[in-house]
Amino acid sequence: MSVKIVNLKVNGVDKAFMARPETTLLLALREQLGLMGAKRGCAQGACGSCTVLLDGAPVVSCLVPAATVDGGDVATVEGLADGRRLSDVQQAFIDGFATQCGFCTPGMIMSAEALLARNPDPTADEVNEAISGNVCRCTGYAPIVSAILDAAQRRRERAEGADQEATL
After folding, report:
1. Contact criterion met (CB below 8 Å) for 61 and 50
2. What is the domain-level CATH number for residue 98?
């Protein structure tokens, strides 16, 4: 059985770990790097609980062989906060009561972060499409969509404020 050393940038920090051919990115993140945010739900790529960003794109990490992402850049929910300050999406989920049991929350947040990175002013339909690969069994999705739209609004307002300060 061959083992490969995989080098990744995870949440902005260079990491290296050993991976067997059957080691998924999810298992490497959780068991070797101690990042427990991404959850193992269905292990078939259908629930989205294990969603992380790989080179900026959302992926279900339970289906990604770790050995295939050598040199990649991975972002997990643990890397979104700036110290004790949560990201806009994380804070909007809390403020909007967009979590119930919390199991799907990290994957939902990562899908939302990817959406807002490419589209800072999404419609509700675009949010629904972006999170369509993430299953929530508790909230009914309305609070999640509202939280993502709220986070987008917060980011736009902060950007507008920064633009106004820059012109002063």
Report:
1. yes
2. 1.10.150.120
C-alpha 64, offset from chain centre:
15
- Of 120, 117, 110, 111, nearest to 154 by C-alpha is 120
Token pair, residue 92, equals 């909007």
- pTM of this prediction? 0.93
- Domain total for the chain? 2
Report the candidate in 39, 41, 52 with the shortest Cα–Cα distance to residue 10. 52
Q: Which residues pair with 19 in a beta bridge?
A: 4
Domain final residue pick, 77, 107, 127:
77
State which residues form the domain around 54. Answer: 4-77
Mind listing the pLDDT tens digit for each residue in 26-57? 999 999 999 999 999 999 999 999 999 999 99
Neighbours of 144 (CB within 10 A): 28
* Pairing assessment for the beta strands 51-54 and 13-19 based on DSSP bridges: unpaired
Domain boundary among 44, 77, 110: 77
- Element housing 54 (H / E): strand 51-54
